[in-house]
Amino acid sequence: MNIAVLSGIAFEMGAIIFLAAKGGIWLDTHFQTEKRIYTAIATLLGVAISIWVVLRQLKRIKY
Fold first, then answer.
1. Closest CA to 26 of 38, 18, 16, 44
2. What's the rounded Cα separation, in Å, for the pair 51 and 55?
3. pLDDT in tens, 13-50
4. Three-class SS string for the chain?
5. Given Cys at both, which of 7, 16, 27, 57 links 50, Cβ 3.0 to 4.6 Å?
6. What does the pLDDT look like over 7-17, one tens digit per residue?
7. Could you give the CA distance from residue 47 to residue 3 in angstroms, rounded to a whole number?
């Protein structure tokens, strides 16, 4: 059971980072930036949010 929960957490983490990066790419194309600053910021924000979500979920897992 814990393996299924942990693989779900990994999938969720990847989805959050992917969606944040796609949002940053969209912002860069919308505002026509050359250095892709929105992609970098959104990706880092996605990583931070996904780590926060993972830590919250790990607290709930009973061993």
1. 38
2. 6
3. 999 999 999 999 999 999 999 999 999 999 999 999 99
4. CHHHHHHHHHHHHHHHHHHHHHHHHHHHHHHCCCCCHHHHHHHHHHHHHHHHHHHHHHHHCCC
5. 16
6. 899 999 999 99
7. 22
